Amino acid sequence: MALKLLSALDAAKIQLYHFKAIIIAGMGLFTDAYDLFCIPPIMKLIGRIYYLDHHNSDKCSVMPKETQYKTTPTAVVSTLVSIALLGTAVGQLVFGRLGDRAGRRRVYGLSLGMMVLSSLACGFSICKTRNCVLVSLGFFRFLLGVGIGGDYPLSATIMSEFANKKTRGAFLAAVFSMQGLGILASSIVTMVVCRIFAVSSNEPKSETPDEADLAWRVILMMGAVPAALTYYWRMMMPETARYTALVEQNVVQAAIDMKKVLDVPMSEIAEDSPIRLKPPVLPHPSYPLLSKRFLRRHGVDLFCCAATWFLVDVVFYSSNLLQSQIYHRFIKDNNDVNGYKLAFKVARFQAILAISSTIPGYWVTVYFIDRIGRVKIQMLGFLFMALVYFAIGIPYKYYWSENISVGFMALYSLSFFFSNFGPNTTTFIVPAELFPARFRSTCHGIAGAVGKVGAIIGTIGFFSASRNEKDSGKPNPVRMTVALVILGVVCLVGLLLTYFLTRETTGRSLEDNEIYEDELIYNT
């Protein structure tokens, strides 16, 4: 016997509030992508500012010909990325649990506030010495990661609980697609800021002026603006009707909250007979999190969500680091190119990649996910990603290492397309649909945190595999071949896990995906 309120949520027509919720919920994902993809061009600026040697010259003299520019070491870049990912994992666990214990709305604004303040703090990284700047930047990026991590389970859970069952997948995919806009925004902001600073600079075109130390800070701080603009609307969001009804056991308040945001007649959500206020009033799991009964009922689902998210993040974040090995083929890091121009070129490269592959992948998923299902899209994505990495990796030593061409770039772009039209999106969606309302945010946070552990492993592992040889300045082709083939194998493992263990949730109510005992049917 299903509550009329829950049935009304499942059958609700698409309304303006659904699109408003996509924007509000998607700002955390937007900030996540902005923060991740603005780091490569920023590291180019930091390299020109803080990794600079003057050989055989007096400190007071200006001798451009004897100035040797260096780039930020890959170890430093991967460390800064890993620190933010560690913070994200912590945030997913902490805020995921708080979302189930205190309510989604109560902690939703806190995670966004942490993102805004930490983004601003990254720009105010103290000192002007290299070590001090990098340490303080790493600290604030960890805090930023905590806020971003908290937004993952809360945004996914809130959107899934507001959506109807027919278009729930598309709404969740649209929230996740805000990452694509974040990637594009980071590139546009970087290019605009670098162009403005370059035009206003009086230094020679080959020099990187002192003002560049301000430019990268401005780029980081700009990431806080879109998130801050949505803070008011996030705080005005009511608690989700599903949480209020199923967890707080307050059906009357759930109906009132639902009426505030969705145009649904009260006759469709009011119960025909009064509900007594003694437990169990509504379907409500009586077993604790991670108990034997929980693991027996939901253990396989939790393992599958966490494992597939782990595997795709190993691959996805390794692919992002692979970009650093591509830049030097198309973007010459010479001493006659100043930091602004170098960062501009890197940002432009990322924008082209985002427009041609990343963003289309997100929106193709939005269109197809409720038509062909989560499982098929996830399997398709893993399969084609594996084929791409084998096509890049197996001949890498003999062909691609010396000939990164249009063919290589086409294959590399496909890896991002099928990651987003595939497991990178579906692993965000499925955990928000499989678990009972009482555990939904927590389980999403656990799966996401395990995924970020995979991201850290991918970041560190690919750094080890792609270290440049001392003489050539290029990565060792044998290590790169092995690394790329391993990524292909990881994708095949994800394909097998999806096929054998992942349950399809397309077109089903969130309550249909929960497994209850007979005594959990509510009293009337």
Task: Name the descriptors.
single chain, 524 residues, mainly alpha, Growth Hormone, Chain: A, 2 strands, 71% helix, disordered C terminus, phosphate transport, transmembrane helix, Sugar_transporter_CS, Probable inorganic phosphate transporter 1-9
Write the topology of this structure:
Layout: H1 4-11, H2 16-37, H3 39-50, E1 52-54, E2 67-69, H4 74-101, H5 104-123, H6 130-162, H7 168-176, H8 178-200, H9 212-222, H10 224-229, H11 231-236, H12 241-247, H13 251-261, H14 266-269, H15 292-330, H16 339-372, H17 374-393, H18 406-420, H19 423-429, H20 431-434, H21 440-465, H22 477-501
Antiparallel strand pairs: 1-2
What does this structure look like?
The chain has 524 residues and is mainly α. It has one domain (8-52, 70-271, 288-517): Growth Hormone, Chain: A. The protein has helices at residues 4-11, 16-37, 39-50, 74-101, 104-123, 130-162, 168-176, 178-200, 212-222, 224-229, 231-236, 241-247, 251-261, 266-269, 292-330, 339-372, 374-393, 406-420, 423-429, 431-434, 440-465, 477-501; strands at 52-54, 67-69. The longest helix has 39 residues, at 292-330. The radius of gyration is 24 Å and the shape is globular. This is Probable inorganic phosphate transporter 1-9. It is found in: Membrane.
